[in-house]
Amino acid sequence: MMRGRGLVNRLAIAIAAILLAAPLRAEDGYALWLRHAPLEGEALADLRAAAPVVMGDLTDPVSPTLVIARDELRRGLAALQGGESAAPRPDSVTLVFRCGTDKGDGDNGFLLLPMTIENHRTIQISASDHVGCLYASYKLLRELGQGTRLMAIPRRVDYPVMPLRMLNHWDNPDGHVERGYAGRSIFDWWHLPEKLDPRMIDYARANASIGINGVVVNNVNAKAFMLEARYIAKLKRLADAWRPYGIRVFLSARFSAPMEIGGLATADPLDPAVEAWWQAKADEIYASIPDFGGFLVKANSEGQPGPQDYGRSHAEGANMLAAALGERGTVIWRAFVYKAEDSIDRTMQAYAEFVPLDGQFADNVIVQVKNGPLDFQPREPFHPLFGAMPNTRLMLEAQITREYLGQATGMAYLAPTWEEVLKANTGRPAARDRREPRIWSSHGPEVDPNEPIASATVAQVVAPVGMAGVANTGSDRNWTGTHFDQANWYAFGRLAWNPSLSSEDIAREWAAQTFTRDPEATRRISAMMLASRDLVAQYTAPLGLAHLMGTGHHYGPAPWVCDLERPEWNPCYYHRADKEGIGFDRTENGSGALAQYAPGVAAQWADPATIDEDYLLWFHRVRWDHRIKGGDTLWERLSAEYAWAEIGLQARMQGWEALRGHIDPERHAAVAADMARELKDARWWRDASMAYWQSINGLPLPAGARPIPESLEAYKARSFPEAPGQ
Ligand code: BDP
After folding, report:
1. Residue 267 pLDDT more than 70?
2. Into which CATH architecture does domain 539-584+621-716 fall?
C-alpha cells in the first residue's frame, strides 16, 4: 500500500514537473516585444505576491490615452502572471496614475515611484501629460518583462530626448512597399476610411511602446493624389485611431501636386497661385486633422520634381510649404540629392547643395539627412552635413528596412550602425539646446551649460530635432519578414528616445522580451546581434567598399556592372578597381570629399597607413599589394575578410542551434532557415566578388583560399526575377 502511494506520488510529481516546465508554445511573432510572456520562478512568485492592482480612478480629465495606459498595464500585468492577475488583497501593491493634462503641453516625460507609506506599498506613475503616462505603462512592463521586481523598478525620471521620433513608410497606395521585404503595405487605403484594420491599433501600440510619435504614411517618391480630399478622409481615420497613442500623422508631398491635382500651370514656389494652392491644401488638411504633423518632401532627387525646376533653391521650396503650414506643422525636407550630370563625387553633392543654404530655412523646416553621405550602405562614415549646418534644424534619417543588407534574409541588427553615427564627433560647433542636459552630458566632454558646444556629436546636433527611420513593416504575420528584424524597429525607437543607450543594452532588453529571459541565452543572442551588421559588411562591402550590389533589386553581388546610364549607379564608379589597385580616392589628390569634414575628423581618415580599415577603400585608392596593418597585402586581406565572414556565420548557426531549448520551435526553425540562407548568400558574394576582382587584377587566389566553384561568367549570368524590391 505504502509502496503504491509512493508510486502515485512520484507519478504526480513527474506529471506536475512536466506540466510546470511548460513546453515552449509555438509563436508566430505577431505580438512583437509586447508578448509579456509569463514570468518564471522567483520573479513570478514576487509579482503574484505583490498582487498588483492598477487603480481605475484616473486623473481628471480622463482621456482615451489614459484608458489605454491603464488597460495596457492591467493586461500586461495579468499576462506576466500567467494570464490572470492575482486577486487583490489588503496588502496589494497599488499602481496609481497622476498624469497631468492632455493638452499636449508636456514633454511626455514620466516618473515611476515605488514607495511604502504606512505599510502600504504603492507605485506612483506620474507624468506631465497623458502620453507620458502611457509611456510609463510600457516602461513598467518592459522592466518587469526583463525580470525586474515590481518594487525595485528604478525611481528615475525618464523622458524622450528627441522631440520627433518618426517612422517614414515608403509604402505606396497600391500596397507595394518600395524597398519593403515583409509583404505588402500594412495600410489598407482601399477600405479606409470606413474600415479600420485592427492591425492599425496593434501597430500604434508597438510604436507607442518604444516612444515613436510620428508616422509618414506614404513613400517619399510620392503620388500627388494622396493630397486629394478622399485621401485626407482616409488619413483622418488613421490620425483619429493613433492620436490616443501619441502618434501624429505626416504625408509625403509631391512638389508638383499643384499642377497634377490642382490644375495649375506651374509649381514654382514663388508663384502666388502656387502659394495659395498649398495654403488652401494645408487648411483643408487641418480642418480634418487638427494635429497633422506636416509634409516630408523629396525634391530634385532621383527624378522627383522640386523648386530647382524653376530656378529656386531648396530653401525657397521648403519655406513656401512651411508658410502654408504655419505654426501648425513642420516641413521635413530631405537632403538626399545627387545629380547625374554633376561630375564630382556623388557623396559630396548634398553638402555642396545644402551648406550654402544654412540659415535660410524657416523655423518650421527641418532638413533630414541620411546617416552617411551615400545611401544606407552597410558601412559609411557619418554624413558631413551634420557638422556643417549649425543654423539649420537637422534630423537624422536611418533606414530600418535592410535595402542594402540582405533585406529580409539573414540577420543584421542595425543599432550599431545608428549608434556609430550618433556618437560620431563632427568636430564642429552646434547650436545648444538647453532642454537636453542628458544628451549633452552623456555624449562627450563635460560642458558649461551656458556655452555653445565646440565639438558636437551627431547625437548632439540632432537631439533637439529628431530621428526618422525608413520603416521595415509589412503585411507578414511577424510584421518585419524575419523575427530579428523586429529588433531594428525596436532599437530605432529606443535610440530616438535616448541616443545614449547602447546597442548591447537594447539588444538584451529586446531579446529578453521577445525570446527568453534566461540571462545567459539573452547574452548569447545579443552577442549574435551585435556582430551581425559587421558580418554583412564583411562579405558584401569589406574594407570600406560600397555599392557593389545588384542593379534594381539591390540584392546579391554585381561589382562588374559598369555600363548603367547614370555613372553613379554603377558599382564600378565606387570601387574603381583596375590592374593596379582598388578604392575611391577621396583625399585632396582625389575627389576631395575628406575636406567636407572638420580637420580633426578628416585627419583620422587621411592616411591609408593609419586609417581604421573599415574605411580604407572608402577614402583611399590603394594598390593590390598595399600592406595592411599586420602585414598582409590588400589582396590577401580582402580574401581573408570574406573567409572570416563565412566562419562567423557558421559559428553563429551553431550558437543558434545551442539555443534550441530556449526558443519556441516555430521561431527557432524560422531563424535557423534565415541563417542557413545567409551563409549561402555570403558564399555567393565571396565567390562572385573574388572571381571579379581576380579578373581585374590577374592575381592568383591567396594561399589557403577556398577555390571559386563557378566562372565569373556564370555568376554574371544569374538573374532573379523573383527577388523582392525590384
Ligand atoms: C534609395 C532607394 C530608393 C529611394 C531612395 C531615397 O534605393 O528606392 O527612393 O533611396 O531615399 O536608397 O529617396
Report:
1. yes
2. Alpha-Beta Complex (3.90)
Range(s) for CATH 3.90.1330.10 in the chain? 539-584+621-716
* Ligand 1 site, residue 281, Cβ cutoff 6 A: no
| Beta carbons of 65 and 244 less than 8 angstroms apart | yes
pTM for the complete prediction?
0.95
- How many other C-beta atoms lie within 10 A of the C-beta of residue 545? 27
Q: How confident is the model at residue 22 (pLDDT cuts 50, 70, 90)?
A: low
How far is the centre of ligand 1, averaged over its atoms, from the C-alpha of 377 (Å)?
11
Q: Are 511 and 550 in contact (CB under 8 A)?
A: no
Per-residue pLDDT band for 23 (boundaries 50, 70, 90) equals: low
> Nearest residue CA, atom 10 of ligand 1?
375
Residue 410 has pLDDT above 70, yes or no: yes
> What's the average model confidence in pLDDT over 31-60?
93
Examine the pLDDT at 448 and tell me if it is beyond 60: no
The partner residues of 95 in beta bridges, in order of sequence, read 54, 123
Q: Which runs of E-coded beta strand occur in 186-299?
A: 214-216, 248-252, 294-297
User: In whole angstroms, what is the distance from residue 481 CA to residue 673 CA?
Assistant: 13
* CB-ligand 1 contact for 376 (6 Å cutoff): yes
**Whole-number Å distance between alpha carbons of 616 and 584:** 9
Tell me if 496 sits within 8 A of 18, measured CB to CB.
Answer: no
- Output the CATH code of domain 171-434+462-501: 3.20.20.80
Asked whether 298 lines ligand 1 (CB < 6 A), one says yes
pLDDT tens for 529-570 read 999 999 999 999 999 999 999 998 999 999 999 999 989 999
Q: Which atom of ligand 1 has the smallest separation from the CA of 404?
A: 12
Cβ(68)–Cβ(244) under 8 Å?
A: yes
Residue whose Cα lies nearest atom 1 of ligand 1: it is 375
Q: Per-residue pLDDT tens for 337-366?
A: 998 777 789 999 999 999 999 999 999 999
Q: Cite the residue boundaries of each domain of the chain with CATH code 3.20.20.80.
A: 171-434+462-501
Pairing relation of β-strands 394-399 and 365-370?
A: parallel
Residue with the bigger pLDDT between 318 and 453: it is: 318
Distance CA 378, CA 310 (A): 36
Is residue 375 annotated as part of the catalytic site, yes or no? Answer: yes
Q: Is 380 in the pocket of ligand 1 (CB under 6 A)?
A: no
Whether the CB-CB separation of 544 and 538 falls below 8 Å is answered with: no
- pLDDT level of residue 16 (50, 70, 90 thresholds): very low
Residue 376 CA, closest ligand 1 atom number = 12
Say whether domain 26-158 belongs to CATH 3.30.379.10.
yes
User: Which cell is 633 given?
Assistant: 597585402
**Active-site residue, from 72, 375, 397, 678:** 375
Q: What's the 547 CA to ligand 1 centre distance in angstroms?
A: 13
| Residue of 487, 468, 402, 483 whose CA lies nearest to 724 | 402
CB 505 within 8 A of CB 577: no
C-alpha distances out from residue 496 to 50, 70, 167, 658, Å: 33, 25, 11, 33
18, three cell numbers: 512536466
d(CA 442, CA 460) in angstroms, rounded, equals 10
How far, in Å, from the CA of 375 to the mean position of ligand 1? 8
Q: Are 499 and 428 in contact (CB under 8 A)?
A: no
Distance 173 CA to ligand 1 centre (A): 17
What confidence score (pLDDT) does residue 454 get?
81
Of 516, 510, 484, 474, residue with least CA distance to 203: 474
Report how far residue 494's alpha carbon sits from residue 627's, in angstroms, rounded to the nearest whole number: 41
Mean pLDDT across the chain, nearest whole number? 93
